Amino acid sequence: MAALPERHPNLFEDVAEVLVTEEQVRAKVAELGQRISADYAGRPLTLVSVLKGSLPFMADLMRAVTIPLQIDLMEVSSYGGTATDSSGLVRILKDLSASIEGKDVLIVEDIIDTGLTLNYLLRYLRGKNPRSIRICALLDKPARRLVDLQIDYVGFTIPDRFVVGYGLDYGEVYRNLPFIGVLKPEVYSHA
Question: Which listed residue (14, 60, 113, 140) is catalytic?
Answer without folding.
Answer: 113
